[in-house]
Amino acid sequence: MTDLADKKSPGAEPQTMTTGAILDGKATAAEVRGEVAALSADLARSGRAPGLTVVLVGDDPASQVYVGAKDRAATAAGFEVHTVRLPATASQEEVMGTVRSLNEDDRVDGILVQLPLPKGLDSDAVIESIDPTKDVDGLTSSSVAKLVSGREGLLPCTPAGCIEILDRHGVDLSGKDVVVIGRSMLVGKPFAQLALARNATVTICHSRTRDLAAHCRSADVIVAAVGVPKLVQGGWVKPGAVVLDVGINRGDDGKLVGDVDFAAASAVASHITPVPGGIGPMTIAMLLANTLRASAARQGVHLEGRIPGPTL
Ligand SMILES: Nc1nc(=O)c2c([nH]1)NC[C@@H]1CN(c3ccc(C(=O)N[C@@H](CCC(=O)O)C(=O)O)cc3)C=[N+]21
């Protein structure tokens, strides 16, 4: 964690405003990945290393970048990683057939189908075809049902990464007013469920919300996950609030920008995640943790309690 107050030049006026601490997702994710790598080595000694297969359909440039990052991180953690590449013209049956053969492959502990799929493919049906015990993205209806009903299961990686970075910095959600901006199945809805399980009071805002700024101004924690560059302004953040920026928007200059105006929000927030270097790296770290968990379960090895990441 970097305290912004440390960056003052010598002799500067003492800071009277709330100074935000940057929640360093890159460093926190590295810590998680190190723990996963050590457990992965234990597992490899007693049986075999965790196996992750990523299914990439088409040639979306952003997806190529993300899949490359997942592959490198999983390889560095000692996993057996494979990427199955299918052309953008692949049929529904070809994609689902690929998933079914991975379901039956004993060396594959985790299956991740990179989203979004090319137009014309039914991604819900593809996701549903994943064996729930191998659903390291936590997106199948089986995983969603477990999350909503409070039973242990594989949690979606981005929301899990949000909780994990808070846990590792001593930020407790119990009793807090949490505002989630965005209602996607990948982030907004599952994060709201996790925050609820941590006893937060949760409001989910979306495109039809009448006064988003007012909701944000009253929030103790803001989670921005809509994909609108710099939507959350500094004046929307209550002094001392916690801000998690899940937005990954590519600007015209090619640079990444989040859903939060970081410069303005970081002056008032108590803790804030940057983009890049915030929730993105945590997402990948949680994918590794989920794959490790799935692999230990498949191999009948009890690592529970030692695997990083939130549980219900
Ligand atoms: N089935 C599926 N599961 C996913 O989890 C999934 C997906 N599909 N489709 C796309 C989104 C996006 N996503 C990211 C993961 C890491 C970074 C990440 O590490 N970003 C770096 C920067 C990377 C860069 O420079 O482009 C950072 O924020 O610091 C970003 C985005 C996972 N997703």
From TrEMBL:
Transmembrane segments: none annotated. It comes from the Bacteria. Pathway: One-carbon metabolism; tetrahydrofolate interconversion. It holds the Pfam family THF_DHG_CYH. Residues 156-296 form the Tetrahydrofolate dehydrogenase/cyclohydrolase NAD(P)-binding domain. The keyword NADP applies. Its EC number is 1.5.1.5, 3.5.4.9. Signal peptide: none annotated. GO terms for cellular component: cytosol. One of its GO terms (biological process) is methionine biosynthetic process. SUPFAM superfamilies: Aminoacid dehydrogenase-like, N-terminal domain (SSF53223), NAD(P)-binding Rossmann-fold domains (SSF51735). One of its GO terms (molecular function) is methylenetetrahydrofolate dehydrogenase (NADP+) activity. Keywords: Amino-acid biosynthesis, Histidine biosynthesis, Hydrolase, Methionine biosynthesis, Multifunctional enzyme, NADP, One-carbon metabolism, Oxidoreductase, Purine biosynthesis. NADP(+) binds at residues 182-184, 248. InterPro entries: Aminoacid_DH-like_N_sf, NAD(P)-bd_dom_sf, THF_DH/CycHdrlase, THF_DH/CycHdrlase_cat_dom, THF_DH/CycHdrlase_CS, THF_DH/CycHdrlase_NAD-bd_dom. Residues 23-137 form the Tetrahydrofolate dehydrogenase/cyclohydrolase catalytic domain. It catalyses: (6R)-5,10-methylene-5,6,7,8-tetrahydrofolate + NADP(+) = (6R)-5,10-methenyltetrahydrofolate + NADPH; (6R)-5,10-methenyltetrahydrofolate + H2O = (6R)-10-formyltetrahydrofolate + H(+). Homodimer. Catalyzes the oxidation of 5,10-methylenetetrahydrofolate to 5,10-methenyltetrahydrofolate and then the hydrolysis of 5,10-methenyltetrahydrofolate to 10-formyltetrahydrofolate. Belongs to the tetrahydrofolate dehydrogenase/cyclohydrolase family. This is Bifunctional protein FolD. It comes from Saltatorellus ferox.
